[in-house]
Design brief:
By secondary structure, the protein is α/β, with parallel strands linked by helices. It contains 17 helices and eleven strands. It folds into two domains: 6-204, no CATH class; 226-401, no CATH class. It has helices at 6-14, 28-37, 51-62, 86-98, 120-123, 128-140, 150-161, 170-177, 186-189, 197-212, 245-261, 265-268, 271-287, 292-313, 349-353, 377-381, 390-401; strands at 40-42, 69-74, 101-107, 113-117, 147-148, 183-184, 238-240, 334-337, 344-347, 358-363, 367-370. The longest helix is centred in the last third of the chain and has 22 residues, at 292-313. Residues 1-20 form the signal peptide. Keywords: Membrane, Signal, Transmembrane, Transmembrane helix.
């Protein structure tokens, strides 16, 4: 599989702005505070792999409007969890604080809500032109069931607001539809539950786009001593793979195999059941090599398998996704901008607060390298943090080598 030489990719990223570590707004009040400073809020989980780009696309689309515009694409605020019509209710709360204007709100687990206040024409306008534009884009997109992203819908809504009684021009729709962030890639949502729909698919898929675009390299501070004669030792910026990783992987795969064998026949042949079997098979294959990153991958595949076994009975459970920084940290809880990189990725709870050190390997000639800078299937997939089909990619990678 072709991969950019990591030096080139690293050079591309050296110029990337340091992660703007703005506070992650978790409540309605925190979102309001952020909207006072910047009326366009896109959290990483909704940014189609690059929330800064998403922010800029929306800001440009809002620039032509002559009323205040607020866009919120975010995780569901903690204080509104479990509420019905959460986007609609949140929009009303935002308006009570921020005043009249056009509000477009969508949270990760919900559907979008658009409403304007204080503009005679827009207040009563129908969103049909946006719906038609989305249908047009989806019907022209490749794949069996292409779906528009929340970002695409938001951009179209802002363009619609400039002339709400008219259809959106085809060339405008087509140009946006051609952007890599407009349509959710197929490979994910055919794995996602129909009921969970595009929001569940989102985290999984958007990173697939980035991977296809080949940049998953990070600029990780090096562990080497600094310069001539400087004796000061810096703490290593990496975490080595534990020495007993192969034993850990073997035990976890055995456990996954045992759980899989306990599935009733009907569930064994369900999509989740066969995903679990694929994950165990992929784990076995990579564990044979004796390579430390492969052994780490086998532990992740064991966790994927156990989760798929659970999903065979409870399809609402999300697929397993490890921390991108170090998969041995466990399951990812939140999507954040990765320090020193140009990507957003799912990370564990600890790394969401303060990013930990990257898992690294000591390569004989090159010294310590963060795993994400190696030419491996693990770098391309983030050990499954960045893709929804880790087992399939690992099996493809192995069969390509034989
Ligand atoms: Zn972590």
């Amino acid at each position: 599989m072709p991969l950019l030489p990591s030096l080139t990719a690293a050079a591309l990223l050296l110029g990337a702005p340091a992660a703007a570590d703005d506070e992650h707004a978790d409540t309605v009040a925190e979102i309001v505070e952020q909207l006072r400073t910047d009326p366009i809020l896109v959290q990483p989980s909704m940014g189609m792999g690059d929330s800064e780009r998403a922010h800029d696309v929306l800001t440009a689309a809002a620039a032509g409007l002559d009323l205040p515009v607020y866009v919120v694409l975010a995780d569901t605020p903690a204080d509104m969890a479990g509420t019905d019509s959460v986007a609609e209710q949140a929009a009303a709360l935002f308006r009570a604080e921020l005043g009249d204007g056009l509000y477009h709100v969508e949270f990760r687990e919900g559907i979008s809500y658009t409403q304007s206040w204080g503009d005679d024409e827009l207040d009563d306008a129908y969103l049909a032109p946006v719906t038609h534009a989305i249908e047009r884009a989806e019907s022209n997109a490749p794949g069996e069931y292409p779906r528009a992203s929340a970002l695409f819908e938001a951009v179209l809504t802002l363009r619609w607001a400039a002339a709400p009684a008219e259809a959106l021009p085809d060339d405008v729709v087509d140009e946006y539809a051609a952007q890599p962030w407009a349509i959710l890639p197929e490979s994910d949502h055919d794995r996602a539950d129909a009921a969970a729909g595009r929001r569940v698919a989102l985290i999984a898929t958007v990173f697939g786009v980035l991977v296809a675009g080949t940049i998953i390299t990070l600029v990780v501070a090096r562990a080497e001593p600094v310069g001539r004669g400087v004796v000061k030792r810096r703490r290593p910026a990496y975490t080595p793979v534990p020495g007993d990783i192969a034993d850990i992987a073997r035990r976890r795969l055995d456990e996954a195999r045992r759980r899989l064998a306990g599935l009733p026949a009907a569930r064994l042949t369900s999509p989740a059941g066969s995903a679990a079997a694929d994950a165990v098979e992929a784990g076995d294959r990579v564990l044979e090599t004796g390579d430390p990153l492969d052994a780490v991958g086998a532990t992740v595949l064991a966790a994927v398998a156990v989760r798929e076994v659970e999903r065979a009975g409870s399809p609402k459970r999300p697929p397993y996704r490890p921390c991108f920084v170090n998969p041995l940290h466990g399951e990812a809880q939140r999507t954040v901008r990765v320090d020193g990189s140009s990507i957003d990725a799912p990370v564990c709870r600890d790394c969401a607060r303060a990013q930990g050190r990257f898992l690294a390997v000591n390569r004989r000639w090159r010294g310590w390298a963060p795993y994400a800078e190696t030419s491996t299937v693990w770098a391309r997939t983030g050990f499954g943090a960045l893709v929804g089909d880790l087992a399939a990619q690992v099996l493809d990678d192995r069969s390509a080598r034989r």
